Amino acid sequence: MKKAAIMLYSLFSLQEISCLTELFRFYDKEMVTFSAGREPVYSEDGFHILPDRKFSEFCREEFDCLVLPGIWEPLPVMLDQRNIRFLEQFYGENELIIAAISAGPILLGKAGLLENRRFTSGVFEEFLDAFPVMPRSGIVRKPLVEDGNLITAIGDAFREFAVAVGHKVGIDCPDSIFSGVEGKIYSKEDLTYHLPPEEMDAARAYWDKCLSAAGEKNGL
The pTM is what? Predict the structure, then answer.
């Protein structure tokens, strides 16, 4: 299975891609984070994230998708030519899945990747009036839009975005995997959790290893 590349930039929205990254993790799809440098990147959620690699270390053959999270303050990120130069290499790319949510499509537009494409975004119209980097003719007023290898979504559609990208990279997950609990009725049995019997031996071995490393006795 090829890896997923996650693009990071100042004040990116971790929340908007957290369902997607959880999906990748649950289905054993390796992720690699990329940024202009190796210094920590501060997210809009208040976390410092240390990128795995610089843009210059991107190897196309390793990856089948590139994910762009939303941006709290998009203008400085869009004006940073390091971000745009990284994306420009994907002009005309039709194999790599490019997925951008909320304000992320702004960067694709600035890099010319939205020409003759259908897309959506969560960008303010006033921003687009001041900085017309996304072709208005391609905008589709829907929460999520797929156009070939391009997947875009508004920020509120982060669950649907995760499922759409997951399906596109071959993850066989149910559409309702992030549907939440609203409207559902649970029994006590539904909320009582058990490990599958076939996983118990491996689980006990792992627990023993952790207890041994911590210097504790079994039965803690």
Answer: 0.92
